[in-house]
Amino acid sequence: MTVNPSNRGWLSKYLEYRKDIFQNFLDDTANDSHPEQSMYRLLRPTGILYGHPIATEEDESLTKLNKLKLLLAESLISGSLIYHHQEINNEDDFSEVVMRTVHNIGDFYNKVYPELSVSNRTFLGKKKSPLEIAEKILEKRVLQTESDNKNFWVSFFDNIILFLDIYFFGRWMHTSSEKTIAEFFMQEKEELRFSIVKVMAAAAHANKNIEEEEQALFDFFLKSSHLLSSQKAEARRSFEKGVNLNDIYLPSHNSWLLKKFFLELAILTAWVDRKLEESEMVFLKEFIKKLGFYEEDLEISLLAVEGFILENWKQLKDLQSGQTLDELGSEYLQRIKSTTDRNAIQINNKLKDDTELTQLLLKSRDHKLSKSEEKRLHNGLIDVLKALPTFVVIGLPASYLTLPMLLKILPNDMQSK
Hints:
With 417 residues, the protein is mainly α.
């Protein structure tokens, strides 16, 4: 990529560079049942939902902070496009929404994150453009996440609070910028930051045994959470003694996206020692009741978290010590198998619509396929599974799922035919 976020004027170049991709994403999510579902589809694969940004191949040469700067900018802008989809009928409308979003980035951070405020004039009194203000604010925001700690789990949660930026910015775009609204968002932001700490404490205590990784994770997060001293003291007591789910603040108007975030935060914390014990599953089932979710929602989020880690295994190097993909993936494959069995009729109908794919599937049982046939069958089966409602939202780790795996997770009746 030719855009370097370290250079002045990078945001304007980036918007031009990504214009077609923004538009394609907008078209792809047009039929989603709710904008928050589209936001989840946007944030989950990038890792920003989990506090661990994942670089595309073309961005791998960038520094961690520059990757994060691009992801934050793209998330804020794409989120705004999602919520203003109905206003966009042509290219001029598209450009207008993008530029309004850039202007609102400055307005939002100056009022809701006053510690990041940027003057709208230069030292010599010249008025800055909205692009210049947004660039400076994005730089200041990602610098807050900078850490020398290289531990995977610390890094995993180091940037977790960035999700709240994106969540509140989406709501900001729907409201006026009055002082009372800004004050409400500031208060809500602090409450939810504290809720993050409490959810982590509750999840860490689920198995009645605080793991070394969980303690290190919590200590670092508390240090970087920007909580008040009194809140930090209460959070530490909560972590040492445990916290009742009833004591965790989740606003009554909380959104599906916010609830998904807290559920998957709890899953990640419980999974920090790379396994989920029975007591931790009991905790997660209690937590989904508080969130107003069902066990199916829990299964989907478990698939989402495990799938993210498996898909990005190469970029998550600290996880590889003492673990193999097979060990980490066995439970994931069992979950997918349960999902495919429940959706056997839909999968069968999809295969019937693709004669070539069905013939390749039958051939693979008795004959060795050529490389091109294996690729066609692999990609075809991935497409069939991605069409299931579960995977439309959370996706699939296509680079992890080999053809033999895909054949094993097909519904039982298809394997016997």
